[in-house]
Amino acid sequence: MNLQSQPGSGPSAYRILREADLRDYLASLPAIVAQLGGAPADWSISEVGDGNLNLVFIVKSGSGGLAVKQALPYVRLVGESWPLPLSRAHYEHMALVHQARLAPMLVPAVLHHDAPLALTAMELLEPHIIMRKGLIEATRYPRFVEDISTFLAQTLFFTSDLALSAAEKKQGIADFAGNHALCKITEDLIFTDPYRIAEQNRWTAPYLDAAAAAFREDLDLHVAISRLKLKFMVSPQALLHGDLHTGSIMVTDSETRVIDPEFAFYGPMGFDIGAVIGNLLMAYLASAGHERTEGERASFEVWLLETIEGVWGEFARKFLALWRSEANGDGYPPSLFTGEAGAARLEVERQAYMARLFQDGVGFAAAKTIRRILGLAHNIDFEWIADEKQRAICEARALKLARNMMLEAPSYTTIGAVTYAARELRHWQPDFAR
Amino acid sequence: MNLQSQPGSGPSAYRILREADLRDYLASLPAIVAQLGGAPADWSISEVGDGNLNLVFIVKSGSGGLAVKQALPYVRLVGESWPLPLSRAHYEHMALVHQARLAPMLVPAVLHHDAPLALTAMELLEPHIIMRKGLIEATRYPRFVEDISTFLAQTLFFTSDLALSAAEKKQGIADFAGNHALCKITEDLIFTDPYRIAEQNRWTAPYLDAAAAAFREDLDLHVAISRLKLKFMVSPQALLHGDLHTGSIMVTDSETRVIDPEFAFYGPMGFDIGAVIGNLLMAYLASAGHERTEGERASFEVWLLETIEGVWGEFARKFLALWRSEANGDGYPPSLFTGEAGAARLEVERQAYMARLFQDGVGFAAAKTIRRILGLAHNIDFEWIADEKQRAICEARALKLARNMMLEAPSYTTIGAVTYAARELRHWQPDFAR
User: Fold this and answer.
1) Nearest-CA distance from A332 to chain B in Å?
2) What is the average pLDDT across A51-56?
3) I want to staple B114 with a disulfide (CB 3.0 to 4.6 A). Which of B99, B119, B243, B419 is the partner?
């Protein structure tokens, strides 16, 4: 046993790092000193975390920089009253290493990991910005469809039963089983609280009071969200990022990086796919709230809808291509689909598999949308619309779309049906707006 | 670390036990000596294992007895060329302890477990016999429906997301993830080999040659079995027995004991349910082969069909009752189904859940049937029909039923539809019989 992993002893014993502590700690790591260059005393270090859970430091020397993320033993947004295990840094590190192998250049490079300190030092992403902020500014990202569809296809396919033996798959599931506290956050905040009275829920009052009440009383919706929750808990199809919204993606014109996989676990593929699609749908329906003059964002909005279609289309194309060429797992044994007829029948089944996956994605996209409007954690797509009534109008459109997607998922047979429904709601006016 | 768990050292280091070794070993255990009574030299010890995998010893003194099961490092039926991990004894012991708590008196009591020796000493079941043998003799078991439905309802419900928190559930899945070698046997022998050319396959030739070829070429069936295989690998709904055929059940007129859970893992509930139903359907369609005069087993066969209906009916009734009164898990949160309307809507969803479970059971029952006729491991229901043509006729009926159940599972909406289909085939004649 490594003594350094004993709490309270050794140089790496857990303690919350301040800037000065971090400087001393990093200065003790030769590889980091070499990477940064310059004298440790000259490094600039600042804590910049704006997420909900962790400390994030930017460290810069004259010639280089890095990002350091340290988990806190509680939820940063809430404080010590909501404890959260440090082990999430371990799972995040494991996921990052895995993703780097499967989707090179699409996640930040890990430079150093210290398990007892729950700390990871990573490549500094500069001049990347959080994609959500870019979308609010109507910035288009020409690489995004290509990159995110590669990330999804590679990470999901190669951790699925289509690529792994059942033994490898079970080992992977077991490796991430301990990350249950992070899964529990999702189970509560996405799949339960928005549909019941919960202290932490909030919404744009008074405009959405009636909608929030309706969601709390809609039993068909409660059955639908409960089925999705069960699917989330009991379908370890692949290693998920687990929190793949546009705030977990950093972008430039020419690069895309997926960050923050601390919610990683083996779950239903549709959850990651739905996270991307749902957050893009929210960006689309929030866009009207960021207009200064009517129609000024019209071509950006067209790009957003094309992007949504592209994410699914390219993901499906790449996933299917991998399935056709890299299917070394225990699922769908090739020996049962030999010859021309076998190949043709398997191809039909691949399409059917993708259709089932798409249904899951539609449902989860809806769940991710609803939680951002009626639950605890909102997003700036809507929050940065200063006019509360205008914000509520945009949110009401998203709620209407999401409710329909969740209840009628099987009727959305193509991604075009989803973007069509979103476009139809772009100018819809809720009762309170009339 | 316990030195006794090091291979090759200490008193419990693994070695294959002979009768004499076992006597010395048991004589060194005070609790066992007290349990058995008498002088160790006077104990009678005989190896009686007739299963496919392990050694089984019966140890008797003048006043008592016990059964000792030791795992071999290979498949007994095949020999050292097919290695199999000793760890299965660990998983079997964990499952037995779990089942004893959930279904008291329905599994053999564990008296002693030695992990390094891969050995478990258990209550001697006497005068119990293997149920499959009793069914061949047309013996009815009045306790069976009551007991097996209790076993299924209790073990499946209380290890599901309806009863456990998501964290407890993930821990359970991880605890059994290492039993993948036993799962792999199922994945290969049940879900793959019978549908392709495999050296170990056998069937009653020449009568079933055409049927075996048809099963190897039926691509719709290959899709159906592949979907079931994927469900088996990726649906950890509950802790399964994993091998719940009528050879894993010991019975008397008044008692039922489920034995041999070494295939235990978290999987789809329908797999255990389908195992029981499928094996009873085989007993039913094998029954004609054990007639000496036509119709002499008619009332036994009626009892068998009633038993099949009773197994599902009572299981569903008990499972639903547990769900209504003991639902402390994270699935279907009660707070989403409050008031009279909520309770009514949840009850509708419970019925829908059971319908989905039944579909799974129908599919898995079919898979369990087909593997016993076209795969490696056959069962004595059919094997003990000495007249090969008569045996093949019975097997052909079972294959026809199973094929239809697998391809048309959704059309079997009730257990009555299953027993009706079986009854319709009871006198059906395949081409080769005409």
Assistant:
1) 5
2) 85
3) B119
Residue type, A182: L
Q: Smallest Cα–Cα separation from B178: which of A176, A265, A167, A236?
A: A167
Contact by Cβ (8 Å): B324, B318: no
For A395-416, letters b (16+ CB in 10 Å) and e give: bbbbbbbbbbbbbebeebeebe
| Burial annotation A277-307 (CB, 10 A radius, 16+ → b, else e) | bbbbbbbbbbbbbbeeeeeebeebbebbbeb
Collect all residues with Cβ–Cβ distance below 8 Å to A21 and sequence separation of at least 6.
Answer: A15
Q: A197-256 pLDDT, tens per residue?
A: 999 999 999 999 999 999 999 999 999 999 999 999 999 999 999 999 999 999 999 999
Alpha helices, DSSP H only, in A329-411? 339-374, 380-383, 388-407
Contact assessment for residue A247 and residue A261, using Cβ atoms and an 8 Å cutoff? no
Could you give all domains of chain B from N- to C-terminal order, each with its CATH number? 3-123 (3.30.200.20), 129-433 (3.90.1200.10)
**For B295-313, what is the mean pLDDT?**
98
Interface list for chain B against chain A, based on CB atoms closer than 8 Å: 161, 166-167, 169-171, 173-174, 177-178, 180-181, 183-184, 187, 192, 195-196, 219-220, 222-223, 225-226, 229-230, 233-237, 330-333, 335-337, 341-342, 345-346, 349
Per residue in B34-80, pLDDT (tens digit) is: 999 999 999 999 999 776 789 999 999 988 999 999 999 998 888 89
* pLDDT score recorded for residue A235: 98
Q: Decide if B161 and A234 are in contact by the 8 Å CB cutoff.
A: yes
Confidence class for position B237, pLDDT limits 50, 70, 90: very high
Q: Which pLDDT band, with edges at 50, 70 and 90, does A10 fall under?
A: low
CA of A296, closest CA in chain B: separation in Å?
Answer: 42
Residue B156 sits at the vertex; the CA angle it makes with B153 and B157, to the nearest 5 degrees, is 75
Task: State how far residue B355 is from chain A, nearest Cα, in angstroms.
Answer: 14
Which of A180, A183, A197, A340 to probe by mutation at the B interface, max B CB count within 10 Å? A180
Residues of A in contact with B187 (CB under 8 A): 166, 330
pLDDT in tens, A129-143: 999 999 999 999 999
Q: Which residue of B has its CA nearest to A195?
A: B336
3-state DSSP call for residue A106?
Answer: coil
Residue with tokens 């080999």: B193
- Quickly tell me which residue has 């029909």 as its tokens: B385
In angstroms, the Cα distances linking B138 to A61, B278, B284, B290 are 85, 17, 10, 9
Q: Do A167 and B173 touch (CB under 8 A)?
A: no
The tokens describing B115, both together, are 């992990």
Residues belonging to chain A with any Cβ–Cβ distance to chain B shorter than 8 Å? 161, 166-167, 169-171, 173-174, 177-178, 180-181, 183-184, 187, 192, 195-196, 219-220, 222-223, 225-226, 229-230, 233-237, 330-333, 335-337, 341-342, 345-346, 349
- A110 pLDDT above the threshold of 80: yes
A226–B331: do the CB atoms touch at under 8 Å?
yes
Q: Cis bond leading into A127, ω under 30°?
A: yes
Query: How far off is chain A from B131, nearest CA to CA, in Å?
Result: 32
Between CA A273 and CA B239 the distance in angstroms is: 29
The amino acid present at A25, given as its one-letter code, is Y
What sign results for the dihedral spanned by CA atoms A224, A229, A230, A232? positive
CB under 8 Å, gap of 24 or more: what pairs does A315-318 form?
A: A315/A148, A315/A149, A315/A152, A315/A153, A315/A273, A316/A354, A316/A358, A317/A149, A318/A149, A318/A150, A318/A153, A318/A154
Flag if A226 and B184 touch (Cβ within 8 Å): no
Residues A356-380 have a mean pLDDT of 97
- Run of H or E including B294: none
pLDDT of residue A78: 83
